[in-house]
Design brief:
By secondary structure, the chain is an alpha/beta fold. It has six helices and 13 strands. Helix 3 links the parallel strand 4 and strand 5. The longest helix is centred in the first third of the chain and has 17 residues. The N and C termini lie far apart (about 50 Å).
């Protein structure tokens, strides 16, 4: 099926035709953004994954000097390109991990939810990157990577220790790669972070030096 037959317009947004649940959650996620970014006093750069269809990137483009985002899924990526035109958004069709390589997009744990798609390693296909390879100094790293949190964080270790960004992690008990939510929280706290607040399904961690 061509990509044109897999997407449609909904209230001015390009969106996957087969999606139901991600669309329904969008208003709640938008409403939560002020409670999340209040923890980020400096807003020059945010690294955000996954980019999904671009709702977060469009909002963050108004709040941060630059947005760097990642989205591996082909259908989401096509919607993202059509929805996001801000010049300060740098988007990669890639997955985040602890090493470079390749991945493929697979169906997540929730049906009809293009916000819950997951990735798994592959011999070829979609590029897989590390945050450290970008050599950036983000003020915020926000990860919504559907169970790949452990790998993405390990691939951001040098960046986290150098830049000391606020870290926001969506946690909903997926544990795709071995670590459950509690273990992910402990991992972040061992890097010198404190848990600050839970907003919907996102946990906010701030560096100890901000306390």
């Amino acid at each position: 099926m061509s990509i044109e037959n897999q997407i449609e317009q909904r209230d001015g947004w390009w969106w996957p035709k087969d999606d139901v649940q991600a669309w329904e959650w969008i208003p709640k996620e938008i409403a939560a953004i002020p409670d999340l970014v209040k923890w980020v006093p400096k807003r020059d750069l945010v690294i955000h994954a996954g980019g999904n269809c671009g709702v977060w990137s469009n909002i963050y483009a108004e709040l941060f000097g630059k947005v760097v985002t990642f989205e591996p899924n082909e259908v989401n990526w096509e919607c993202f390109k059509r929805n996001v035109t801000h010049p300060n958004v740098e988007a990669h069709r890639a997955g985040l991990s602890n090493k470079e390589g390749f991945c493929r997009s697979v169906e997540g744990d929730e049906g009809q939810n293009y916000g819950a798609l997951q990735i798994e390693e592959a011999d070829e296909g979609i590029p897989m990157m590390t945050i450290d390879s970008l050599n950036l100094n983000p003020d915020l790293i926000q990860l919504d990577v559907e169970g790949f949190e452990e790998n993405a964080l390990k691939g951001a270790f040098d960046t986290i220790m150098r830049a000391r960004p606020v870290i926001i992690i969506e946690q909903k008990r997926l544990a795709k790669n071995g670590m459950d939510d509690a273990e992910i929280a402990i991992m972040i706290q061992k890097l010198g972070y404190f848990f600050a607040e839970r907003v919907w399904s996102d946990n906010v961690f701030i560096p100890a030096e901000m306390v």
